[in-house]
Design brief:
Blueprint (H helix, E strand, L loop, with lengths): L10 E3 L2 E3 L7 H4 L10 H8 L12 E4 L6 H38 L4 E2 L15 E9 L5 E8 L2 E11 L6 E10 L16 E9 L23 H8 L5 E4 L5 H10 L15 H24 L8 E4 L5
């Protein structure tokens, strides 16, 4: 490279007229030629108008390979969604806690006699309320609900209509669980009382069937979930279900199993309440993904995010 800038060509290569410029700043090259005092840019265009150099189109520094695609948008949505779900579970926890407290208060009350005529629409207001009823069990209309698992053993829930005699009404009694090997009535005669009995239990509102439970087949004697309305129509009873209760003493349980007497449920609230675990899971996911999002946005440029010179005529 020469230290001075002149107007004469220094060399020719491949038929093109080439000039060698000083490594001095471009601002000096934009001044005038030292020999003829003509602006250098004007002299170069006069000699070789087809040549475009760095002087005509100064470059600018740009950054490449530093773009964020749809993945960053998804990563930003995840913590927001998880936070919303965690907040929703907080509300569900408050609702479930208050509901269980309401049922516990009802269980603490003394049992009531079941009235002859029951308003089915009012049953939800008395859910988990202790009641007692007297009558004769209709074992000829017994329905086995299941299969159901109890302490690792397969079996069924026994639902039997109870005829209230002079009242002329019938209600459904869920007497409890029996083993599968005792599903035939001939194998459990001691568990089939024939006289008048008094049953104490919990008044329950109708259950809701989920999408995974198959439909009942009353004509075949197959019942998979307690559809109170369907069972009442099948047996000619009121759409009222009472779950018989018993004290869960170990000796009493063994005695009932040996005699084929159904095992009633304990008088307690058995609702699942796992919302605290769900709250921790959703909020932890929200915090973790929010931190990941911050790392992606704030991370320093890597080797791939290099700087290059880009001319305005490249576009």
């Amino acid at each position: 490279m020469l230290e001075r800038i002149g107007c004469s060509p220094l060399r020719r290569g491949s038929g093109l007229l080439l000039f060698e410029l000083s490594p001095r700043p471009v601002q000096q090259a934009l001044r005038t030629c030292r020999e003829c005092r003509t602006p250098l840019l004007q002299r170069r265009k006069a000699v070789a108008p087809s040549i475009s150099s760095i002087v005509d189109n100064p470059p600018r520094l740009v950054r490449v390979n530093h773009k964020h695609g749809p993945g960053l948008i998804i990563l930003a949505i995840i913590p927001i969604t998880a936070f919303v779900l965690g907040t929703w579970q907080v509300q569900r926890l408050e609702w479930k806690t208050s509901l269980m407290a309401k049922y516990e208060d009802r269980l603490a009350l003394d049992p009531l006699p079941l009235p002859p005529k029951v308003d089915v629409d009012a049953i939800p207001e008395f859910d988990y309320r202790k009641v007692y009823v007297t009558g004769r069990l209709r074992h000829d209309q017994e329905m086995l609900l299941g299969p159901r698992i109890h302490d690792g053993d397969n079996g069924y829930q026994v639902i039997t209509p109870l005829d209230r005699g002079d009242d002329g009404t019938t209600v459904l009694i869920n007497r409890g669980w029996i083993s599968k090997k005792l599903m035939k009535q001939a194998a459990r005669t001691e568990g089939l009382p024939t006289g008048e009995v008094t049953v104490q239990g919990l008044l329950r509102e109708p259950y809701e069937k989920n999408m995974f439970t198959p439909d009942n087949k009353p004509e075949k004697g197959e019942f998979y979930f307690p559809d109170v309305k369907e069972m009442a129509e099948f047996t000619g009873s009121q759409a009222v279900l009472i779950e018989e209760t018993m004290v869960p003493e170990l000796l009493a349980i063994y005695d009932r199993k040996a005699k084929g007497i159904p095992l009633g449920r304990p008088a307690q609230v058995n609702l699942r309440n796992n919302h605290a675990q769900y709250i921790f899971t959703w909020y932890a996911l929200s915090a973790a993904t929010a931190y990941m999002f911050w790392l992606v946005v704030r991370r320093p440029p890597t080797d791939l995010a290099r700087r290059v010179r880009q001319n305005k005529e490249w576009a």
